[in-house]
From TrEMBL:
This is Maltogenic amylase. One of its GO terms (biological process) is oligosaccharide catabolic process. Residues 45-370 form the Glycosyl hydrolase family 13 catalytic domain. GO terms for molecular function: alpha-amylase activity. InterPro entries: GH (IPR017853), GH13_cat_dom (IPR006047).
Length: 462
């Protein structure tokens, strides 16, 4: 694939010679960086069927070195189980302990995980606890595993016609599900789960508390992490805060940004959205995963690429995703600009040849920055800075200063409240298309910066 050749060339140039004020030269490593703490990690969502032309674990394993070079720390695999035939949804499992034959075998999964571990990458599986395919053999062999309505019929949750809801009041069902969760850890050495539809009212909090405790102690010395597909800050989901999940979705944060872009962008409103996100995040026990897109946003509801969701603000919002708060998610293909909607029912392929070099170089730089700056750890403090332009937002996290213009015009903007001194500029929207670069700057306490329309800059105090 074209992007693979391009990526190889970029890796060869990973150490870049940079011009600094005063004529000194330094090098900046933007590829293959490692996080300074678990709080500085980046997660990558992969649909095995879409990730390569072959759509197999064997092919995906060959591309793990590229993800390692990009700086991926955790791979979240979308459901890998055999699918029900009604809609071919990956979220309609036929067998919790088997692999979709189109993707490969259990041995292929083992090899994928083993190679990921060699590269220092963790692997989480997508887990769908609430329902299974309506063709699942349990419908015939264990009809008592399913919930029923007043008429005695098995229930299609939310009207999803291809799946049937499981009954967590049945201890035998619970035993079967728990056995499958343990199977993937013990058999393939996976490192955690992204749990689908955790907000389901039919799965008791006590269930999650029990199984999460079991999984975390299943293999002595092995760290197991759990992420819930729900926004625990939502008042309807607050009960889940006691379940023991390590991460949840910053769902309302993403939704608010998407609605803002659809209705007419306003930087002051974005600032309010961000502040509300910080305030709510401070009240929950778990850490947050932040994202601009994933399989739902990209394909469902008619399909939305980053461009369709956010327009030209997609670059500035990408900077926000990686520098503001939480663990950033990359959906497969997002690193090259999210060029197309991906039908995950048919495993539509990522169009790797359609590279947005500005986005790719921005993401590469942001991952390195997120990895190497302790101030960008998931829960580190954030302080907004005053700007002379209402269309420009600026924030500071200890020694990192971020400035993003959402204006449709070039602007000279003054930033108040930073500490005067020597800074390295890690990211410059005006030059990033040509590749990552770094320059030294001496900034006063209230610097005036030149930003292009939709421009952005990131500075690190020395």
């Amino acid at each position: 694939m074209v992007v693979m050749k391009y990526w190889s060339n970029m890796i060869l140039a990973a150490v870049l010679m940079l011009s600094a004020c005063g004529g000194a030269s330094k090098s900046l490593v933007v590829d293959s960086t490692q996080p300074v703490s678990d709080g500085n990690r980046v997660i990558y969502q992969m649909n095995v069927g879409a990730f390569t032309a072959e759509g197999t674990f064997q092919a995906a394993t060959k591309q793990l070195a590229r993800l390692d070079s990009l700086g991926v720390d955790i791979i979240w695999l979308m459901p890998i189980y055999p699918r029900g035939a009604t809609m071919n949804s990956p979220y309609a499992a036929m067998d919790y302990k088997a692999v979709n034959p189109r993707y490969g075998t259990i041995d292929d999964v083992k090899a994928f995980v083993a190679h990921a571990h060699q590269l220092g990458i963790k692997v989480w599986l997508d887990w769908v606890p609430n329902h299974v395919a309506q063709e699942n053999p349990w419908v015939q062999t264990h009809p008592d595993y399913f919930t029923r309505n007043d008429k005695g019929n098995m229930i299609h949750p939310h009207g999803w016609g291809d799946v049937l809801e499981l009954n967590y009041q049945n201890p035998e069902l619970v035993k079967e599900v728990n056995s499958a969760l343990k199977f993937w850890i013990e058999t393939c050495d996976i490192d955690g789960y992204r749990c689908d539809y955790v907000s389901s009212p039919t799965i008791p909090v006590a269930y999650w508390q029990d199984i999460i405790a079991q999984l975390k102690t299943l293999v002595p010395g092995k760290k197991i992490e759990m992420m819930s597909e729900t926004d625990i800050t939502d008042r309807h989901n607050q009960r889940i805060d006691s379940c023991g999940f390590d991460y949840d979705y910053a769902w309302s944060f993403q939704g608010s940004m998407a609605r803002l872009c659809r209705r007419g962008f306003n930087a002051d409103t974005l600032k309010s959205i961000c502040q509300r996100f910080l305030d709510k995040s401070a009240k929950v026990k778990n850490r947050r995963m932040v994202y601009l897109t994933n399989h739902d946003q990209n394909y469902n509801d008619g399909g939305n690429t980053l461009r369709k969701f956010y327009g030209e603000n997609r670059y500035g919002l990408t900077v926000l995703e990686f520098t503001f708060y939480g663990m950033p998610l990359i959906y497969n293909g997002q690193e090259i600009g999210d060029p197309d909607t991906l039908n995950y029912f048919t495993d539509a392929k990522v169009k790797w040849q359609r590279v947005d070099h500005k986005m790719l170089n921005t993401v590469r730089t942001l991952i390195a920055l997120h990895h190497q700056q302790p101030a960008l750890a998931e829960s580190a403090p954030v302080k907004f800075l005053n700007t002379s332009c209402s269309d420009v937002l600026a924030w500071q996290r200890d020694n990192v200063v971020v400035v993003v213009s959402f204006a449709d015009y070039d602007t000279e903007v003054t930033i108040d409240g930073i500490e005067a001194g020597n800074y390295q500029q890690w990211l410059n929207s005006q030059t990033i298309y040509n590749g990552p670069s770094l320059t030294k700057n001496s900034l006063p306490a209230s610097p005036t910066l030149s930003l292009e329309a939709k421009g952005y800059a990131v500075y690190v105090k020395q």
